[in-house]
Predict the 3D structure of the following.
Amino acid sequence: MKEYLDFEKPIVKLIEKIEEAKKKGNEDKLKRLENALIKVKKKIFEKITPWQRVLLARHPQRPYTLDYIERITDDFIELHGDRRFGDDLAIIGGIGKIDEFSCVIVGHQKGRDTKEKLRRNFGMPHPEGYRKALRIMKLAEKYNLPIISFIDTPGAFPGIGAEERGQAEAIAETIKEMSLLTVPIIVVIIGEGGSGGALAIAIGNRILMMENAIYSVISPEGCASILWRDGTKAEKAAEMLKLTALELLEFGVIDEIVKEPLGGAHQDWDESARILKEVILRNLKEVIKLSKEEILNERIEKFRRMGI
Amino acid sequence: MARDYPNGLWIKCDNCGEILYKKTIEKNFFICSKCNYHFRISHKKYIEYLLDDGKLEEYDSDLETNDPLNFPQYKEKLIQAQKTLGIKDAYVYGLGKIDNIQIVFGAMEFGFIGGSMGTVVGEKVARSFRLATQLNIPIIIVCTSGGARMQEGIFSLMQVAKTSLEVGISDRKGIPYISILTNPCYAGVMASFASLGDIIIAEPGAMLGFTGPRVIEETIKQKLPEGFQKAEFLLTHGFVDLVVPRWDLRRTLIRLLNIIWRK
């Protein structure tokens, strides 16, 4: 399986050469190649298109929620099940420590290989996933712990069981309850913010977004197929939807863009996690100073301002 | 969709194909006398059918979108819908009475870009709940929508959050909220205020759900079961309290309000 995007080809070629030079111990060549790599990455990324961001947000090598949790937390215990129907593996949740902060963490979870992808249902939750996330977030309220929520889903799963078990109700209820919690909530869109399926666990005091993540009411493919009955015009739709971090920051829909290592988060998971942890903690320290009432009101007013 | 021949005397039922005398159907709340199919009707009809004297004191009727994404061809679409329907966007709300009980009443208009929720619908729904809370009166909303309005992008998605949050706030203040689901209601609207009523009523046969049936079929490559996503299906699965025919909606609301509000 191809593990890189077409426009990344020059980067991948150079990385291969660098590996070769490393093996041969050719220091001069190594240095030259490493400089060339930075140049090539800069060149590609300075005029990156919205569609390329979509591809990066879905990159097969991009770190997923558990990859970040592993690197950011000192301890993490995953909790399972919605106590009603089952345990949806497309959403994970648990309690953990980030430095001195005990917290609750929830997030969408995609799978890396085919088997894992199926097990995680490609990061597309069923109602029980949202109900699990809400159950665990209510523990945060009970224990007075802040919540960190990682967003990375193509959308809520469109299926028979999902409808039978109330996909719409599960999303609505989760949003409603999440918005009324009185603990700090930090949301990070790490990859794909796919419509209602993403929003369901994205009601925060701070909405952070990784540089190459996307957040949209509809996928570019879906938009193109509605507008032109042609899903292949997604590239154009990606521009029209204004789904990149930069555009959403301008709109005031997100609060901060989290920098990624040059070339994208998948180029260096550890560095991505290091940067993300720093930004999460800085935001958390700000919100945690507020009283419960202030935390709630700040979040309510934030969403009241969105739109008109 | 109901194919209405404005100048003709006859309407064809979309469900059973029966040719129906228009005047009879009008008297029958636009319900097919043969198969009980509920024709899609405008928000104005719901105001007429449900409120005392068919009267609504409308609020914020001038609120208009500013096309936040500057989305191609959206302005034209808006102007067209506004001209045809005489409203600025897909949701109308205000104060009305049912059996002399003052309520906030809102109704969506499917004819206006598929009843989709953009910034104006979201804001007006939010204001409806705030008005009910402020006056401490019940709120009733007739829902019908294809979902969030694509042309307003992320701002439409944020209305899903905004409206759900307002339901939550009014709920904590003890404001009764009755949601009436009519054909069709999907996606962003079903995944927010439509599904959050204390009491949820659906019209018979209404198509209701999160994802539309065609997308589900394409995704899972399976034929959908008979009656999938119909109001009766939601009743069986526990997501609707009552399936009530249109001719009995007003009487049902009167009974409900008299029990929960006039005590």
